[in-house]
Hints:
Elements lengths: L2 H12 L3 H16 L6 E8 L5 E5 L2 H13 L3 H8 L3 E3 L9 H9 L4 E7 L6 E8 L7 H55 L3 H15 L3 H12 L12
Antiparallel strand pairs: 1-2, 1-5, 3-4, 4-5
Amino acid sequence: MTDQATRLHELLLGAEDISGFLDELVAATARSLTGLAGEVWCAILLVRPKRPATVASSDPRARALDEVQYDFGEGPCLTAAREDRLVYLTDTLEESRWPRYRAAAAEAGVRSALGVPLDLGGEAVAALDVYSDRPRAFDADSMEIVQRQAVALSTTMRLAVRMARHRDVETDLRAALTSRTSIDLAVGILMGRNHCSQQEAVEMLRHASNRRNTKLRDLADELVRSVGNGRAAATHFVD
Length: 239
């Protein structure tokens, strides 16, 4: 195992979750560059349909600088993510691109910034954002460090995105199964009370749902609670 891989393995074992691991990784990137490129802060920007989000940062200042880009809809890191190319803002006091962002960044003490796209294999669009308090802070050596870290971060981010999607699917599935359990129990209660068929009980439930303008699962849960001493239906999952 290489030194880089060993370090990543140690970070992953020491982190409580994938978010903590990403924070540790961007913090390690910032530490490796600080001194070589002035004082450095890093963050990971994830492009989403409604608004981009910062999923990890080495310092609150990096997160705040990302938020400035989101507010203005412009900046080197957003450009890097959207256009899938390395973007270098050499000096916030001399650049002509992204005027609103550049002015805000300069006021916050940033003199240069680097946006490096992360290769997520089509899973999502993201970038590593690197900020420095020094103009023209990033030379060939520091850029090589950033790009090596971007490769490691890309692998971790792909895993994080897949895990998040898996959790979303699992949550939706559990919610659907729990809802189904409530409805099935409510139908059983109505069948017992009214000595009717399953189909007739389902129609009763639907009619009551429409009449009261209440979601079917909410009405079913209310009925189950009424006969269960206030307890909701429980769906048991085996992990």
